[in-house]
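Recap from last week: sequence in, structure out.
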Amino acid sequence: MSPVLKVDNLEVSYGDTPAVRGISLSVDKGEVVAIVGESGSGKSTTAHALIGLLSGTGHVTGGTVHFDGDRIDNASEKALDRLRGAHIGLVPQDPTTSLNPVIRIGEQVAEVLRVHGLATKRSAKIEAIRILTEAGIDNPELRARQYPQDLSGGQRQRVLIGIALACKPELVIADEPTSALDVTVQRRILDHLDARIAETGAAVLLITHDLGVAADRADRLVVMSKGVIVETGPTAEVLADPKHEYTRSLLAAAPSLNSALRPPRPSSGNPILTVKDLSKTFRIGRGVTLDAVKNASITVERGHTLSLVGESGSGKSTLARIAIGLETPTSGSVEFDGTEVTSLRGSALRALRRRVQIVYQNPYASLNPKLHVDQIIGEPLEAFKVGTSAERSARVAELLDQVALSKDYARRRPAELSGGQRQRVAIARALALRPDLVVLDEPVSALDVSVQSQILSLLDDLQSELHLSYLFISHDLAVVRQISDTVAVMQSGNIVEYGPTAQIFDTPQRAYTRELLAAIPGGSLDKETAHA
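Predicted structure tokens:
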């Protein structure tokens, strides 16, 4: 039996710069093959090259790609259009740029069925609700009437997964399909992919920086570095006995629930942020409201890290936006360094902006695509007139180095960077003004494990050096375990459990918290690294 996907000596360049150099791989029917590696290693470029979706100056310079026995690397755009969606489903990495902001969610899901002749205009609407339900979307009838910007990042990603699976394709190319998802929904989505494979024999090419997901879900691993495959083999064998030094470094950097907790810091009794009885209700339609946050209270101590965890849509980001003055509450109070901030205006609000910075979940949407990287990082310094031009340039260079980007990236634009590289730029910009409090909204979800480790280490060092305080929002509990002093667990707008990190992880009191912990991927990874 021939493989569903066969790649031989594929070469891809952007302009004259090689990005993928002579890679070969195959995916059999019913098999999951995961490509892992650092940002910029060529993973996503490989995925896009397979189906003719390279951006900008990207082009295939050599090799062949066969799908179901037919060569497709030289296929016409019309032929590829017939394959994409119907026979090859793609889950893209960035949900913000992949969904049309002026078309309702349900219509976007229905469109793929109509385009490929699998439903009428009327039946497509019904099928769209079913697809959203299978993708783990809560209240799918309501969500189908909303626009992408009305959904959380994780919800938007679930919509893309539903679209990719809608036509029951023979091959699914999943490019970081769960990077924006909380662990429980991630498990449901990956379980759904597993079920699809069992039902139809579909093949999956999984592109991921999450070694936990790859360890749990892939039959074979393909490890890429600098555009080449450095190691490949059955997942269990690669994890148990990695042959290449690069693979060993990836495994060493992967966050693990076996790692030691951060040593508890004594309470300072000096809060930088105090939120009391906070509530927020959104009006989302005629006569329809959504209680996003309900009577929430948290305290971030100076020099400490409080992490908010919970499923997408649980209210984490909304609470954080209210806490730093980017959203008004329906009720409740917020004090920053002893000052009530919900009523601040003008110069007082601007002064708060300098002392509080935020790193958003989606770096592509938060970075100006027209600016170069050095301009993006230096923008806050110019806005607040910090230092001379030479001093600002030196600060930008220092920040690039801190987030593991060479000076060569200074004159690139966001579109020329990988997802992980864009997130590093966003983190550098947030640190530029040396704020007192940094809100980190999924700050490392787009990063490969080695850079993730560097960023977390950097954040820890900066916190100790500058006495920074962090409000850390994440669905990755292995990361939360490493960086947090205190954890607040949110569910449906409520804080259901709140306490020191060790207490939450070692003796969780609520069933919901235990469910979150049980859903964390990488159990086999933990076993292998512990054994090693």
